[in-house]
Amino acid sequence: MAGRNDSSQIRDLLYPDLDPERSHKERRDNRDHSGKDSSCSSSSSSGPSCTGGGSSGPGWEREQREHKEQREHKEQREQREQREQREDRERREQREHKEQREQREDREDREHKEDREHREDREQREPASSCCPRSDLKTLSRCGIRLKELNFSRMHAVLIDVSAFNHGALLVPQAGRDMWHRDFVKMPCSQGSFMAFKPGLLRPTAQVCRWDMISKQLKGLASKKEVSADDVAEAIMKYNPKYKGHWTFDALSSFVKCIPKEENYFCTLFPKIAALALKLPEQVKKAIPLLKRGHTAAITLSQVQISCLLANAFFSTFPHRNTSGPNTEYHGYPTINFTSLFGKWSERKKEKLRAIMHYFNVVTDENTKPIGLVTFERRCLKDTDLPKWKSCKEKLTKLHVTSHGSIETEGTGMLQVDFASSRIGGGVLGSGLVQEEILFLINPELIVSRLFTEKLENTECLIITGSQQFSVYSGFGDSFEWAGPHQDRLDRDEWGRLKRQILAIDAINFKHVQEQYNMSSVTRELNKAYCGFMGQEGKDPDIATGKWGCGVFNGDPQLKALIQLMAAARARRGLAFFTFGDEKLKHGLEQIYHLLVTEGITVEKLYRLLEDFCAAQHAHAVSRVDLFEFIRNDVRRSRSQL
């Protein structure tokens, strides 16, 4: 190329095909390239041609773009179709799962409903199986308690010689000092007991020893073989002259006259009671402390000492105990002298006197007089001793429910609940004749507790261990009748006490039924019951109770039953519940107890249910809400939410 001139170079540029060698070479290169790249073959005269160097025209680029767009559209369409298929499959699976779940839930709902209806139907028709037979409950004889030697302490006054007793000697009264003091029983034979006596119209009134006056009259009666009711009345009025014209003895007089001759031993019994009363100074030598409110304390007496004290009560010898007004010395104590029993004749008093006279007939006979001990314990709980009911995790304990039998008979050996008045004994020396009064009449030794037990406060109770049952009875209230003597064959414990425990707890006396449906009243009753039920865990007998605080006190039997169940659960003691012929209450209590037990309801949960119930009662002040039905409905709602 260096030897060529410029004109040749220009020609080559303008006419490249004129160079045969170059043209031949380029054609060969094009053929080689065409053989290697099949995509560059020309299939039509209008299509793009492949020339040397691989360059393309506008048509080719457009076709390439179209191919690319088609591929992209196809890929997008395929992806969209796959996505739609996947979404359809997921929707179908979800729909199938939903249908299966709904079918399963419908089936479970039907089964749950059928099960609930079957259970509720069974609860309504079948007796609850959770209650236990009475034989499963513990009595004192089965507790296996071993007492320590009897001894006195600051909180336990013992009126017999404990040293002699612990060495196996006969019961000997404990020597001690006479105490004419506000903290002790003021005895008729006390050296500090004086009374005003006017020997005649013209002679001045003098202060004389009360016991001298009393013993003179009693000796006069005791010296006779037979004494009339009028003689008894005359003797009593001699040392109670200020009550002349106020006291009457028509009930005592009418009683002696109306009893058939073959049963009428009273005229020969009166002298024996007088002789027993005269033994007071030799039988009770130590001052008897008062069981005062706010203090836990106990007194143990022999049954002979008790009979001697009651003989003095029969002859109304106890000073300062004939009135109970708000300003009197013993206004917080029950009455003890029997004059209220001797006046205002009624059939009730006739039957009461039959029971009382039978007791004295037994204790004045040397062959039948009792020889054991009885303990009276006042228990007082402080606020720190009381349970926090909203957080009690205990579940309900054993329950036996019956509409037959009685606490004092079928409940023998258990802790027997006395539906007490706050003033112990209630109307036993008046016209009262319901559960407590009947209990005191068939166990007259209980009456002596009125001598030294002050009115019970909200967290206090009285427990009597060892009293003897002397009589049986029939009826209740106006239908009550003394039915004859009872031979008490209970075993005695190491202290010579009969294995009988009686618990006196007083319920609130509601003037109106609706007053009890508030939690302050419910909590008060829980605390009162717990005060009596608590003991040494696992070492105490189970409890015999019933419609505590119902009847004249207007308590709701269903509410009182659950309150006692809760207190027993907290004290970990079983319960025998006597409905006294109330079949409806029996079946209702069995069913609700079965429900509470099977649902695992705790004391805490039951307390909260009672809160809701009281609120519902106030919301329906006109119509009364049934407690057991309220609880059933609440449990059903809880089940349906599971």
UniProtKB/TrEMBL annotation:
Residues 262-378 form the PARG helical domain. One of its GO terms (molecular function) is poly(ADP-ribose) glycohydrolase activity. Residues 1-133 are annotated as: Disordered. Residues 37-49 have a biased composition (Low complexity). Residues 1-10 have a biased composition (Polar residues). Its EC number is 3.2.1.143. One of its GO terms (biological process) is carbohydrate metabolic process. Residues 387-586 form the PARG catalytic Macro domain. This is poly(ADP-ribose) glycohydrolase. It comes from Seriola dumerili (Greater amberjack). The lineage of its organism: Eukaryota, Metazoa, Chordata, Craniata, Vertebrata.
